Amino acid sequence: MLGFLKEPVVVTAKINVSLVALTVMGLINRLWGLCYPRAVVFDEVYYGQFVSLYMKRIFFVDDSGPPFGHMLLALGGYLGGFDGNFLWNRIGAEYSMNVPVWSLRLLPALAGAFCVPLAYQILVELHFSHCAALGAALLILLENSLITQSRFMLLESILIFFILLAVLSYLKFYNLQKHSAFSGSWWFWLLLTGVACSCAVGVKYMGLFTYMLLLATAGLHFWHMIGDQNLSNVSLLCHFLARGLALIIIPMGLYLSFFYVHLALLYRSGPHDQIMTSAFQASLEGGLARITQGQPLEVAYGSQITLRNVLGKPMQCWLHSHTNTYPIRYENGRGSSHQQQVTCYPFKDVNNWWIVKDPGMQQLVVSNPPRPVRHGHIVQLVHGITTRYLNTHDVAAPLSPHSQEVSCYIDYNISMPAQNLWRVEIVNRESDTDVWKTILSEVRFVHVNTSAVLKLSGASLPEWGYRQLEVVGEKLSKGYHQSMVWNVEEHRYGKSQEQKEREVELHSPTQMDISKNLSFMAKFTELQWKILTLKNEDTEHKYSSSALDWITMDTNIAYWLHPTSGAQIHLLGNVATWASANAAALVYLCLSLWYLLRRRRKIYDIPEDAWQLWVSAGGICGGGWAVNYLPFFLMEKTLFLYHYLPAVTFQILLIPVVLQHLSDHLCRSVLLKSMFSALTVAWFSSVYFVYCTFSPVTYGQPALSLPQLKALRWKDTWNILIRKQ
Amino acid sequence: LRRPGLPGVPEATAGDKAELSEARAGRRRRAAAPSPAPTGCGAAIVPRPSRPAGRARSQRRVPWRRRRRSSPARPRSAAGTAGRDCIPRRAPRPPRRGPGAPPRPAAGRPAALALVTLLSFASRFHRLREPPHVCWDETHFGKMGSYYINRTFFFDVHPPLGKMLIGLAGYLSGYDGTFPFQKPGDRYEQHNYVGMRGFCAFLGSCLVPFAYLTVLELSKSLPAALLTAFILIFDTGCITLSQYILLDPILMFFLMGAVLSMVKCNSCADRPFSASWWFWLSLTGVSLAGAMGVKFVGLFVVLLVGLNTIYDLWDLLGNLSLSLVMFGKHLLARVLCLIVLPLALYTAVFAVHFAVLNRSGPGDGFFSSAFQSQLIGNNLHNVSIPEHLAYGSVVTMKNLRMAGGYLHSHWHLYPEGIGARQQQVTAYLHKDLNNLWIIKKHDSDTDLSDPSGPVEFVRHGDIIRLEHKETSRNLHSHQHEAPLTRKHFQVTGYGINGTGDSNDFWRIEVAGRRTGELIKVLRSQVRLTHVATGCILGSSGKTLPKWGWEQVEVTCTPYLKETPNSLWNFEDHINPKLPNISLDVLKPSFAEILLESHMVMIRGNSGLKPKDNEVTSKPWHWPINYQGLRFSGVNETDYRVYLLGNPVIWWLNLVTIGLYLLITVATAVALKRGVQLTSELKELSRVVLHAGGQITLGWLLHYLPFFMMGRVLYFHHYFPAMLFSSMLTGITWDALLKFCAGLLSPSTTARRVYGGGFLALVLLILYSFYLFHPLSYGMIGPLASNPSSPMAGLRWMDSWEF
Questions:
Q1: Which residues in B lie closer than 8 A to residue A476 (C-beta atoms)?
Q2: Nearest Cβ partner of A540 from B486, B612, B673?
Q3: Contact (CB, 8 A) for A505 and A323
Q4: How far is Cα B478 from Cα B175, in angstroms, rounded to an integer?
Q5: Under CATH, which number does the domain A294-509 receive?
Q6: ipTM for the complex?
Q7: A213 φ, ψ to 5°?
Q8: CB contacts, 8 Å: A479 with chain B
Q9: A717/B contact by beta carbon, under 8 A
Q10: A141-156, pLDDT tens digit by residue?
Q11: CA-based nearest distance A257→chain B, Å
């Protein structure tokens, strides 16, 4: 029992002191004075509101990315005991006492700090020397832009952390591959690769680029394994399945789980409800659910309904009519039918109520038992307040002359008959006899006479239409478009006086609990779709820049300015590092091309293993830079300098790779080698010098005087804020 | 997990036997199947370079020689065994069909080619005159053809070659350029339109033989080529698109021409610098220039040829028997034929374009003042206007950036929330009364139009006020954000009847001049500095949203960089007090004109954005034939033509792409795993990987980029990709059928399976064409939704509108 005492208890620990030292330095460097400034800095104003909403459990949609990053920030707030009560309205606003600034900013700062040892490890795993690895870590440590970005409540540093972690774990996994496949640590690193990838994607969609790069690398490596005749088909299959599981299945599952947690946390209705469909809204506590609870599920003849357009753009709105008529002549001289206007109105209103009527019967009440309306049935829609029929005819619509005008029919006793029959087509039906359901069914109204489809054109009417949105009959209904689809939101069965007594028995309506009807996957698909398609007005921001400006760092972003002292924080890179990173990328490219051409002619300048090293390091570092940078040239969204940070991180890792290669293979004599080392040291001190010079605008303190600030403006295009006297 | 021994060894004998029978079967089958390149077992042993000469000679032989070679097939039946013996075990095996395989009857291929060409022409020229009215985009391209005949200058987003050819065809066929082509549906009446249609149909018909030859060259298989040809002949979409006055048949003609010559050139690779090699290489270059000259989409085929050339050169570089000098020659030849030649031709096309169009027309305003001065009939041609700017002059100001507009204002205000709610100031590309501004002094408001008053010239460094002539508001700026470029200040029209405030003052400066100098119309490059804020008037080049009528944003930039964006010149100049003098206007050089017209085209292209809520065609719709385009007619009584691919063919293409992917992966993995393949299969895998790969690359290059385009897209953009997809279908099914047939042991069954499969595919295509041919050849009568229509029941997808 006490057998273990027979042997002496020996703990042998091998500690890489430089790794520890780097970590400590990183922590000091990123965490120093974290609470300063105690004011909202730049995009904190944006992310902060989401943290507050998490604290209050209120639902929101953020089109900038998936929710994992937001949740991590919120975790900081949760641990710091934040109650969510802060108005995030202005950059530079002082934080009130209830905001735990330190813990809110802690997670990004930690992530930023751990990037330093990660960089070291990556170079080691790429089989570069300890010295090169140290250099890489120090460059990351002294990179002003990374420091600035990680010291506030922003997501980039977390993203970069996960990206680097994914790369590192893949490299570890790959290096274990040869000797100990399917061992514990092999599995650990493989799984960690997948987990880190999905975390990176979960923080920002930019993470996808690195994920793709790693998938491609894994694919390439596996392709080499296929050619290995020593491996049997079975073991090859096992390898393939393991990779598929860890790099595709698990990331997808994790990604889903982020959304699951997100939706589980946010169960209250809030300001972004209206973007979502009625069904989704009804699943949230408060909001629409309060209204729709206890509504009858099946729409029947005689039902009173409000109809919401499914598109929700430019804003959510309901089919509406009012006593005003279309003007006889429009400004451009075209004529109208002069009948009652039908519009789409973005607010709840008594004029949004419509009654579903059976064309064959006169009554406007629901019979007992209710006769439900099914797909393909023909109905008339009666406007509740004016009791006029929804109508369309071959008259050009006010703003969209190619479509038909939709009106509520007034009988002027002229040769223009009423055409008020509409066929109900349930778009998301399961069978052709489906019943029209409140909230759940998405319905198209097809005009029987002209087969035009009721559609929201998206244009807003002039003064005579009270700037409400235009509704038209679309003749050329090209396929499915959300602007032609409507759903019932509010619904009650119409009842007349004599029915009032029987109301109680009549109204044992099909109670429904929408939230149960809507599965997680349905919610997820909808939310995901909204995140991907929701577009903010892409107007230019004052500090936005184009991707071409980033390489040369022709642009900066002012993050914060002290209201009195003139102390300020800027997102500005370390000029020396950026320039040398560009130089390194260029040298790498030229050398690689040179080697490739020479190798093709069977001239081998460097030994084979050095070449392999060179290629793999370039593939990871140069490839990482390319995949994280080049796609921005194809994007149309507003771009900022901080979008370049993941790319520049990879580019920085390329510097020591190139330096070591130059010293190992191109400096052939000892003298050259020592000269090269001296140059490297000199260059490194210049990096340090630049770091020190710009640290006041990186950390925001100390405040600089006017001439000092002017001296910092090394490029004309930089926007250093200089207060006018 | 290691397997004992080498996998190949134990099965070696069995494998050989199988190979033997395979070889025999294959040889017999090959009487029906096409023959590969005649490579023999000798070729495997003798080093490569010696082969070409012999082969070239044998190919140059007259047909009777081939016939003689093919007849004694039976006596040579031992060749299979002999072939096996003479090949060393590890040497790369040549395709086994070499010596013993009788090539196809020599008459077969020309006959097939003739048949295919005939069918193609027949299908394209059938009912070419119908409908005798303007269809769809004929309204644009017909009109532009007329412009060439009338020599009036116009502007279009595509390069000019296609429209020039249309114009030429019209001219040669006797069309006089008088038909206005106003809108689709206009009847041609007595105008001769058939010449232009016939020209397009002719080029469209050439696609089929081109595709046929390409596939034949790539796969060396007649059935594959025939299948491709049938697919293209009987595709309703290709027929429809070739029958009208459109750019697409012209573009696709050059595109397929480039692909064909590239493939031909590749197969000449074993005798470089021979006459035919030079011919095909330079023909590739010519076709590239043609494709680029018709539409910018031609860039994709340039990319395809470029990638192929790089691959080719890479191969040559790795060939150590080739000296570097020889490699240099190869490189130079390609640079000459594929870069220099096309560029020269492309430039020549533009030179002709500008030489032909020398009269002022609807496209003037898109170009700079200097350019306009060259057009006969433009108000700047042989211009005579007052030379120096004076106070009281009425002027228009043109931005100097490429395709910059005139400074413009109109009675509309900036909408709420966008800067101050004052009158909009924009840059507008067209000539318009609202482009006129009056130059006034900043401090006095005396009526300068009084003819008796003294003339006072504007000088460099003066502070002036610019009053908009139509609305009498002053050009104004202030420290509000500009609507799109947030870093700049907003520019507005302000004040009533010329009375404003100090924010209306601008300092006028000529770039690179000293104080006090006079300002010359057209020639001075002028900068307007806002006095109060120090910013400079400029045009950002961004298009305003709907409220700004999609005109170009004008801002006041606080960054004092010297760019064409912030420089202006005065173009029109009206001042009755000054004498008009004729100016020798600066003539732009041809290079400048070329650059400028490209900038204008690119901007025009990116300006074709879909409007809000407009249902547009999406790239993923295309391969599934989701929705077509109405070429003509809507109602029951109309002659209706609907551009839609033959659904059977398109879905076959779609399935084939998936199938091809599967086959490729399987083949590549098998090869990588070192599975021993028979020579038959090796040849098949070469066709699948190499030929198929080339075609797939073409398909990808012509399809994927559309996913990233912001402009409005249409269904017909897919047709170049569809050509590649059809070729892939031919190659893949041929390979698949051969593979399936190869699995069956008795050769008769194998041949039957192969022939049966092929026949089934062809019949399927023919039957579907029979069903859907009214789409291209016109439908009259009830719509397809009506059960009495001949098209009833054929509307397989709800999104088809016929």
A1: 801
A2: B486
A3: no
A4: 57
A5: 2.80.10.50
A6: 0.75
A7: -60, -45
A8: 615, 626-627, 798-799
A9: yes
A10: 999 999 999 999 999 9
A11: 29
Which structure tokens are listed for B522? 């057209």
Q: Phi, psi at residue B481, to the nearest 5°? A: -65, 140
Angle at B154 between CA B149 and CA B156, to 5 degrees: 115
Looking at chain A from residue 469 to 488, which residues have their Cβ under 8 Å from any Cβ of chain B? 476, 478-479, 481, 483
For B318, which of A476, A479, A600 is closest by C-beta distance?
A: A600
Domain boundaries of chain B, sorted by first residue: 384-582
Helix/strand/coil for A211: helix
For residue B559, the chain A residue with the least C-alpha distance is A717
Chain A residues touching B487 at Cβ < 8 A? 540, 542
Rg, Å, chain A Cα set: 33
The answer to whether residue A608 scores a pLDDT higher than 60 is yes
Set of chain B residues whose Cβ sits within 8 Å of the Cβ of A636: 710
Residues 677-716 of A with CB under 8 A from B: none
pLDDT of residue B607: 66
Q: Which of A1-5, A634-638, A663-667, B80-84 has the lowest mean pLDDT?
A: B80-84
Q: Sign of dihedral through CA atoms B682, B686, B689, B695? A: negative
Q: Any idea of the CA torsion for A260, A264, A268, A273, to the nearest 10 degrees? A: 10
Which amino acid appears at position A496 of this protein? S
Q: What's the average model confidence in pLDDT over A565-587? A: 92
- Count how many Cα atoms sit within 13 Å of the Cα of residue A248 in the half-sphere of its side chain: 10
B485–A540 C-beta distance less than 8 A:
yes
Residues A488 and A439: beta-carbon distance below 8 Å: yes
CA-CA distance, A13 to B524, in Å (whole number)?
A: 79
Closest by Cβ to A539, choosing from B484, B612, B798? B484
Chains A–B, number of C-beta pairs less than 8 Å apart = 63
Contact assignment for A540 to B626 by CB distance below 8 Å: no
Class of domain B384-582: mainly beta
> Cβ contact (<8 Å) for B317 and A717?
no
Domain spans of chain A, in order of start = 27-261+544-712, 294-509
pLDDT, one tens digit per residue, over A452-482 is 888 888 788 888 888 888 898 887 665 677 7
- DSSP assignment of B678-743 equals -HHHHHHHHIIIIIHHHHHHHHHHHHGGGGG--S---GGGGHHHHHHHHHHHHHHHHHHHHHHHHH
Minimal Cα distance from A541: which residue of B? B486
Contacts of A269 (CB under 8 A, 6+ apart): A58, A59, A281, A284, A285, A286, A287, A288, A289
- A458 and chain B in contact, CB less than 8 A: yes
Residues for chain B: how many in total? 802
